[in-house]
Amino acid sequence: MDILESIKTTVEGSPIVLYMKGTPQFPMCGFSSRTVQALKAVNADYVAVNVLEDPEIRANLPRYSNWPTFPQLFINGELIGGCDITLELYDSGELERIVRETRKP
């Protein structure tokens, strides 16, 4: 399977997907850590993909999403954004609403 198809399958296969550096338990950068904290605060059930474990995903995800940096948060198949946008949504209460309304697998 082509790497872009693989990314698409992952993004469309779960309601909330976070591509990050490291894991939720051991984030490997501050931006990923803050994004995980925001998701945890709103009790989000999500799939985390460690881009450091797969150089092909790390190299091609920015092409797929048109977003150059990590982490990248997808909800219902659409790119929400990175750390800054996730934190803005959290601060405004929107992240909690979006997560609550997200379809269940």
From TrEMBL:
Keywords, ordered alphabetically: 2Fe-2S, Iron, Iron-sulfur, Metal-binding, Redox-active center
Matches recorded under SUPFAM superfamilies: Thioredoxin-like
GO MF terms held by the record: 2 iron, 2 sulfur cluster binding; disulfide oxidoreductase activity; metal ion binding
Amino acids binding glutathione: 21, 58, 70, 83-84
Domain Glutaredoxin: 16-80
Binding positions ([2Fe-2S] cluster): 29
Domain of life: Bacteria
Family, similarity comment: Belongs to the glutaredoxin family. Monothiol subfamily.
Entry-linked PANTHER family: GLUTAREDOXIN FAMILY MEMBER, MONOTHIOL GLUTAREDOXIN-S14, CHLOROPLASTIC
Protein name: Glutaredoxin
Organism of origin: Tahibacter aquaticus
